[in-house]
Amino acid sequence: MEITGLDQIDNRIIELLRDNARLSYSEIGKIVGLSRVTVKRRIEQIEKSGIIKGYHAVIDPQAAVKGIRFTLDLDVVLIHYEEIVGKLAANPMIHQIYGTSGKSHIHAIGIVPNSETLGSYANYLFRSTRGVRELNWQILVTTYKDTERGVDYEIRYQKHEHMEAGSESSGQEQTRK
């Protein structure tokens, strides 16, 4: 992503920091052809302008906790909405909760140790929570893109070394039998 209003070097510095925010000023300087001091000054200016809002670690909670990632979609009676969100938020297995439009008013993502625990939790949640009209759960099998957890679709799934044999584009139509 190129930011309008910044020169090519500042855009390259931002790209390098986005890929690895732990690079030193000296390392960045070697890549972009500037001194450490000049790189430091440029980064400070970019931060001061508000373009760089902060530096964050990419955390993968699943790497630390062995388990299964899952989603819950709940269709709820709106009068009980906050109560249900509170119940989800109080459970340490639930890591993210979203309000949605459409039939499912609440979408949650979490990690459980095994599928039996997920089934038991979903059953408990449905039976013991007032206002849940419908509850659907799914186990997440593959992550194709998750920028917060460092999975980039373009890098992982579009590069030649990650493509399945025979799936390279040859200009011919491919069909399944």
Short characterization:
With 177 residues, the chain is an alpha+beta fold. The protein is built from seven helices and four strands, in the order H-H-H-H-E-H-E-E-H-E-H. The radius of gyration is 23 Å and the shape is elongated.
Can you describe what's shown?
With 177 residues, the protein is an alpha+beta fold. Among the domains are: 8-48, Arc Repressor Mutant, subunit A (Orthogonal Bundle); 61-139, Alpha-Beta Plaits (2-Layer Sandwich), CATH 3.30.70. It is built from seven helices and four strands; from the N terminus they run H-H-H-H-E-H-E-E-H-E-H. A hairpin with a 6-residue loop joins strand 2 (94-99) and strand 3. Helix 2 crosses helix 3 (36-48). Residues 156-177 have low confidence and may be disordered.
Keywords:
177 residues, Alpha-Beta Plaits, 4 strands, elongated
Detail the poorly predicted runs: 156-177
- Spatial strand arrangement across the major sheet: 2-3-1-4
CATH superfamily of the domain at 61-139: Lrp/AsnC effector binding domain/regulation of amino acid metabolism (RAM) domain
CATH topology of the domain at 61-139: Alpha-Beta Plaits
Oligomer: single chain
Helix count from the secondary structure assignment: 7
Shape: elongated
Q: Using the CA coordinates, give the radius of gyration.
A: 23 Å
Structural class: alpha+beta
Order of helices and strands: HHHHEHEEHEH
Portion in strands: 15-25%
- Terminal CA distance: 39 Å
Number of strands: 4
Task: Compile the SSE list and pairings.
Layout: H1 8-19, H2 25-32, H3 36-48, H4 61-64, E1 68-76, H5 81-89, E2 94-99, E3 106-112, H6 115-128, E4 132-139, H7 153-158
Antiparallel strand pairs: 1-3, 1-4, 2-3
